[in-house]
Amino acid sequence: MERITRIRERLQEHGVDVFLGSNAVTRRYLTGFTGSAGFVWITPTQQALLTDFRYVEQVKAQSPSWELIQIENVTDTLQALVDRDQVKRIAFEADQVTVKQLQDWEEKISAQFVGVTGWVQELRIIKAPEEIESIRKAAQIGDEAFAQLLPQIRSGVTEQDLALELEYLMRKAGATGMSFSPIIASGPNSALPHARPSQRILSHGDFVVFDFGCVVDGYCSDMTRTVVIGEPEEKHLLIYDLVLKAQVESLAAVAPGKTGVEIDTIAREIISDAGYGEYFGHGLGHGVGLEIHENPRLSKNDHTVLQPGMVVTVEPGVYLPGFGGVRIEDLVLVTEDGHEVLSSTFKELFVVQ
Predict the structure, then answer these.
(1) What span, in angstroms and rounded, lies between the C-alpha atoms of 90 and 281?
(2) What is the pLDDT of residues 169-213, one digit of tens each?
(3) Are 214 and 221 in contact (CB under 8 A)?
(4) What does the alpha-carbon distance between residue 3 and residue 6 come to, in Å, rounded to a whole number?
(5) What SS3 class is residue 181?
(6) How far is CA 172 from the centre of its chain?
(7) Residue 353: its pLDDT value, please?
């Protein structure tokens, strides 16, 4: 109920009568409902979940404390609620509603629509204990799946072969889905931060980047490890050791009171001082929860002060076009006195013989 109380405080602060939530993650976070369609309607005294016939029984099971309102026509249902609750101003999620949908509402519903952003996202930034446990379990499944995959990494297999096997292992262990399509990138492909698995065959001299995560109870995990096929050359070791140093030292600084930009700067200066700054072009990390990319960000532009209960990634990388890239990523919980690393897979360079 604290989440609903916080939304009601926002209603008063912004002088609106109701919060209308349409985002799937918003619905799940506030109500527990996991269906793919519906709206959340929160007034100072009422809380209703609007959905269609397909999800009526699901709402009853997952959100028993919420008033269930069955939708046949969205605008008609919203107008009926405006009349019932004497609503004059509706706060809606501006980043989730299309221009056409808003125009339709404004033409047919006798209330003023006020676009708002961040109301629920700001609540989600600090995880409750049960959320942390789901993320922890998802991270554990990822660690275990990668350990099982390691013996299968060798010259002659394709990126896609390994991606399919990794997803199978995580789902078999209890994951309900993938946090995102796994990134398995070898050789020159590993210099592409968001490469997708292809039919490229792993071969001697390749860096291979594995970036993946899974979902447990709706919550995501995220981890990246990089291996090398065959005995590494001096350049492999140089790049890998540089990224590892940046990752370990920036990770060590994660603690309450630090800002995203402070943590990012540690890794960025290490890589820049070594002459590779232009090859590290993304932020150091991001929040993880019901979505794989959430606030806060560990980046050059985020001054968010870290607080206990936040979950972030720490993932520096160096990407050399035509040669390959290295990224090392851990999932990290900010605690009262520092941090806890939720990823347990070793970070020493794994050499595939």
Answers:
(1) 40
(2) 999 999 999 999 999 999 999 999 999 999 999 999 999 999 999
(3) yes
(4) 5
(5) coil
(6) 22
(7) 86
- Residue (of 7, 20, 8, 12) closest to 115 by Cα position: 20
Contacts of 295 (CB under 8 A, 6+ apart): 121, 122, 125, 286, 287, 302, 304
Q: Helix %, strand %, coil % for the chain, to 5? A: 40, 25, 35
Burial class (CB in 10 A: 0-12, 13-18, 19+), 157: middle
Q: What are phi and psi of 294, to 5 degrees?
A: -130, 175
CATH of domain 2-124: 3.40.350.10
For 20-56, give the secondary structure using H, E and C: EECCHHHHHHHHCCCCCCCEEEECCCCEEEEECHHHH
Model confidence at 61, in pLDDT bands (50, 70, 90)?
very high
Q: Is the CATH number 3.40.50.150 carried by domain 129-352?
A: no
Instruction: Give the distance, in angstroms, between the CA of residue 161 and the centroid of all CA atoms in the same chain.
Output: 25
Sign of CA dihedral 76, 79, 81, 83: negative
Q: Which residue has the tokens 């676009």?
A: 115
Domain ranges within the chain, ordered by starting residue: 2-124, 129-352
pTM: 0.94
pLDDT single digits (tens) 291-308: 999 999 999 999 999 999
Write out pLDDT tens, residues 261-287: 999 999 999 999 999 999 999 999 999
Tokens 């076009």, residue located? 321
Asked whether the predicted pLDDT for residue 1 surpasses 90, the reply is no
Cis amide bond preceding 296, omega within 30: yes
Residue 115: how many CA atoms within 13 Å on its side-chain side? 11
**Domains 2-124 and 129-352 fall in the same CATH topology:** no
Q: What is the pLDDT of residue 80?
A: 96
Give the pLDDT mean for 103-108.
96
Amino acid 112: pLDDT: 97
For the chain, counts of helices (H) and of strands (E)? 10, 20
